[in-house]
Amino acid sequence: MAGLALDFAARPRSIGATDLTASRKGTLMHAYRSHTCAELNASNAGDTVRLAGWVHRVRDHGGVLFIDLRDHYGMTQVLADSDSAAFAAIEKLRAETVVRIDGRVKARDAGLVNPKIATGEIEVYVTDMTVLGTAEELPLPVFGDQDYPEETRLSYRFLDLRREGLHANMMLRSNVVRSMRRRMWDAGFNEFQTPIITASSPEGARDFLVPSRLHPGKFYALPQAPQQFKQLIMVSGFDKYFQIAPCFRDEDPRADRSPTDFYQLDVEMSFVEQQDVFEAVQPVLAGVFEEFGGGRKVDVDWPQISYRDAALWYGTDKPDLRNPIKMEVVSEHFRGSGFAIFAKLLENEGTEIRAIPAPGGGSRKFCDRMNSFAQEQGLPGMGYIFWRDQGAGMEAAGPLAKNIGPERTEAIRQQLGLGVGDAAFFLGGKPKAFEAVAGRARTVIGEELGLTETDRFAFAWIVDFPIYERDEETGKIDFEHNPFSMPQGGMAALEGDPLEVLGYQYDLACNGYEIVSGAIRNHRPEIMFKAFEIAGYGRDEVEKRFGGMVKAFRYGAPPHGGCAAGIDRIVMLLADEANIREVIMFPMNQRAEDLMMSAPSDPTNEQLRELGLRVLPKEN
Fold first, then answer.
1. Is 285 strand, coil or helix?
2. Pairing state of beta strands 502-503 and 465-466?
3. What is the pLDDT of residues 591-614, one digit of tens each?
4. How far is the C-alpha of 567 from the C-alpha of 261, rounded, in Å?
5. pLDDT at site 619
6. Which residues pair with 487 in a beta bridge?
7. DSSP string, 135-147
8. Which of 293, 341, 546, 576 is the most exposed place for a label (fewest CB within 10 A)?
9. Nearest CA-CA partner of 584 in 139, 9, 177, 152
10. Could you tell me if 423 and 385 are in contact, meaning their C-beta atoms sit under 8 angstroms apart?
11. Per-residue pLDDT tens for 115-162?
12. Where are the alpha helices (DSSP H) in 449-583?
């Protein structure tokens, strides 16, 4: 149970003696415990002690009963034989009953010492026991590692949280937050709290609306992020802000995203450029990963990769750099070639062919498996070439090799730096149509061929995000990314082609997850109005939606920027969990329901009348 003692070093060595009620070596005994269940060792042999906790399990060894007694800190083995006054009561105990025991500490024989727990040198002989809280038959066992349906786990989350792994995850989360706070204060940042009830402000997701009783028909919103408020803090003359901020977004759930709320390390700084933000944030996050990464390597060099290069090389803007595979454009080798599918495709504007190198993947069996993977992703397939040794020399094999001929095949091999035993996979079309599948294929290839390092945290700043995109159906220009980012080049950049405008916006990727997003803010009203005008939003609409911030910018706004780091996702990486619900104390399920508290719930008629609301019946 060592996982429960993550904060062991930070707690007092023993319970204080100010509210004690019985006797122990001439002093008074605390009403519930003299020690925690992780505290006793061989030096306590002979002591009379009092412990309290949960009955983890009871074992009957032929007239001697053993209890593994568990509390927040750890586990202690206690025992009773037929001579103990508590023997009959212990026989009736159910798992997870809360008890207080009095007893004497005994040193274990050398052959019976349990090195897996902190109290493994001793056991406690029970002289008296009191039941403090009874337990009914359990719907979910705490002892053991059995996997149970998520519905059961979330309905009885208070039991689930008693299990060793989940309990350790929550303590990890608490310690990560504490470390973040300390590091931010040490770096000269000040913590301020921003409102939870505020105005609706589109941040890229749906708001949770809160009806107003005092203003019937009007609604507040829970903040998707403290974005506007933290910028207003900079305008108000404060220089370095941070907050462990709750954020609320009505989103579709994913394994790495909560459907309702999440927490982020929110940061903003005045008089800074992009690099200043990077230099402020990197030591904090690197320190957290080094402190809680369990000895895994934490990369020191965090490369800066443009958004377009990330899409080209990795098929995603959150690349996993533990995987060394880089995709490349190989269009020229297929233009006018004997492979009619790609040759014809390249006659269309905006199309290209990309290759995914696969060192060590040079077998037909592996290539066929990856082709099937592409079909599972909704594509017709994925072309491939693999190189094998034919005794007299190297030979390129596969349908593509036969169609394009040895000269083009050799040119592809040399461009990709491949050799005997290697393979390459090919996808073509308009990049946006196949990039995501290519990125997933790169991930699968790296994992299956053992190319991806698992004992490492690899970081990359993704920079130079495009601000605008064109809707291919309507031809309309709209924002592709954060509309509040300062355009690179300022007002002058907005006079040219909108699709070429890049923003001072950035994300930090770690092991295939986005863990930070931020930007240098557009703090000049005239540039902001122009940026929104290009996307079809008039001055009046900007004033209406973001009036508070625009007004503030008219009275002297400093250049400022910042970012937000997702705490849930960071802890998920540190805990080596694949699902974010494993690091959230009381998460929602996939349908955004709290099964334990029965939320969301139906309002009462009285509540609806008070708010002036009526619920329409759901349409079939």
1. helix
2. antiparallel
3. 999 999 999 999 999 999 999 999
4. 12
5. 79
6. 503
7. ----SS-SSS---
8. 576
9. 177
10. yes
11. 999 999 999 999 999 999 999 999 999 998 888 899 999 999 999 999
12. 490-493, 525-534, 539-553, 567-574
Cα(102)–Cα(85) distance, rounded to whole angstroms?
A: 11
Structure tokens belonging to residue 343:
């040759």
Tokens of 294: 């369990």
Nearest to 281 by CA among 265, 295, 263: 265
Strands 122-133 and 27-30: unpaired
Sheet containing 383-389, strands listed edge to edge, beginning at the edge strand earlier in sequence: 328-329, 352-358, 423-429, 383-389, 394-397
User: For the chain, how many residues are written?
Assistant: 620
CA atoms within 13 A on the CB side of 386: 20
Separation between Cα atoms, residue 310 and residue 453, nearest integer Å: 19
- Helix 274-292 to helix 164-186 angle (10° resolution) is 140
DSSP 250: B
What kind and span of H or E run contains 445? helix 431-448
Do 194 and 244 touch, CB atoms closer than 8 A?
no
Neighbours of 26 (CB within 10 A): 5
> Does residue 223 have a cis bond before it (omega within 30 degrees)?
no
Q: Quick one: average pLDDT of 256-275?
A: 94
Q: Which residues contact 522 (CB under 8 A, 6 or more apart)?
A: 484, 485, 486, 487, 528, 531
3-state secondary structure of 288: helix
pLDDT of 6 reads 38
User: Which residue in the block uniquely carries the two structure tokens 């995850």?
Assistant: 169
Q: Which of 592, 580, 584 is nearest to 256 (CA)?
A: 580
3-class DSSP state for residue 422?
coil
- Are the C-beta atoms of residues 571 and 289 closer than 8 Å to each other? no
CB atoms closer than 10 angstroms to residue 154: 19
DSSP string, 154-211: HHTHHHHTTSHHHHHHHHHHHHHHHHHHHHHHHTT-EE----SSB----SSSBPEEEE
- Tokens for 136, please give them: 């009914």
Of 495, 517, 491, whose CA–CA distance to 506 is shortest? 517
C-alpha to C-alpha distances, 76 to 35, 164, 406, nearest whole angstrom: 10, 15, 71
- In this structure, the number of other CB atoms found within 10 A of the CB of residue 324 comes to 11
For residue 460, the cross-strand partners are 509
Task: Please calculate the CA angle 513-519-525 and round it to the nearest 5 degrees.
Answer: 150
Buried-state track 33-49, b at ≥16 Cβ within 10 A, e below 16: bbbbbbbbeeebeebbb
Residue linked to tokens 């009871």: 58
Tokens of 250: 């009505």
CB count, 10 Å around CB of 422? 20
Structure tokens at 140: 């979910």
- Structure letter (DSSP) for residue 536: T
Tokens of 156: 């009885």
Give the angle subtended at the CA of 595 by the CAs of 589 and 601, to the nearest 5°: 105
Q: Which pair of structure tokens corresponds to residue 83?
A: 């001579």
The one-character DSSP state at 599 is B
Summarize the confidence of residues 373-390 as an average pLDDT.
91
- What CA–CA distance (Å, rounded) separates 81 from 73? 26
